[in-house]
Amino acid sequence: ATGGLTILAEVALPIEQLDAAKIAQELKNAQEDLADAASDEAKRAASEKLDQINELKAALGL
Hints:
Elements: H1 20-36, H2 40-59
Helix pairs in contact: 1-2
């Protein structure tokens, strides 16, 4: 059997569009979303998004 990989993403951007300024803006937006989250579910989702952006930033060495 062959293996496979499925990647699910809410937002997909071409790698050329990922720069320090774009990631900084996405981080700011995610932090604001987390601060504004009213429910536990919204907080969880915002926290996951923030973690993903931080992981992307680290992977890109930014």
